[in-house]
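(Deposited chain)
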Amino acid sequence: MRLGLRDTERLAAIDPLRRRVLGGVAWTAVCAAGLSAPARGQGPAPAIGSTSVDPDLLLLTDPKTKRRLKLRVRLPEGAGQAGLIVYSPGLGSGVSNGAAWCEAWRRVGFVVVTIAHPVTDDAIWTVAAGKSFQATVNEAIAGPQYGLRVADCRFVIDYCLGAAAFASRIDASRVGLAGHSFGALTAQSIAGQASGAQSLRDTRVRAVIALSPTAISAERAQSLKSVNIPFFCITGTHDQYVTFKKNGESVRLGVSLAQRELVYEHLPVGEKIQLKIDRADHMSFAGEVVGAQNFSRDVPVTETANAQIWERVSETTSLFWRFYLDGAKQSGIESREALERRMRQLIGESDQLKFG
């Protein structure tokens, strides 16, 4: 579903208080549509060779990897410079992934660019003739894709800071990166989690958010000790495994909640945060409506439940970006203690928030 321009402008103008009153239906509708809602006339110019007729979508080819990337670009209102946030979706998801918080980040003043990573994006749901769904998924989670996704992010940051029509709007000193699931692993690598003797750290990225972070083991999590930037882990009490389903086939992937929490536990003390949301499962952090025909769920799914979880993620992450990318003076959040107080005001009584 794609909202028309009038609907987009009308929904984007709903202030936060009214959005809360409207509740799950309106909020879920906005996110399900992958709403971008830039101010009129602020959509980026299409890239050379782009075949997209959507002014918010760009199609680019990385000359080094030859990978064809689809990007959704969200520009904040106004004409001043803004920080850049790059978003890396989870396996099986495209540019509509994370729409709830990506739109929230745009509203608080950031340029937000979502990447559809080839092979691992929503293309997995189109199974080639003579090929099984299991084989398609195996190809998507094969070793080379981890490094290629990091390369995608590097290329997109290069593009946004250089060749993009909106490059002049970006403050290169304020770059953040976030991702869900496979995208969280991508974010962990870019933040500096070591991979053997190799580091994939991108020093342009100043802060990271990992939704459903992953550590295979406590031993593997030791490699997180090299991370030296602010890092926000977000998980849920039911954030564990998920079954991908297509044409009668099913593939179960994921790790236990305890393994997800190893990430926070092994990050260096000083600039780490973890939020564990009550009654949220792995796909709660898709930030968009996902179909039961494709993904298993471990919690009851309602529009109201989605809205509550997405709002908590959107509001707490917006505070994180504002404090760590905009700085204390511009954000009005004078310290980490103030950041923690404000986050605690936004979460539910049964949610768990840690600062370390």
Notes: Residues 1-53 have pLDDT under 50 and may be disordered. DSSP finds twelve helices and eleven strands in the chain.
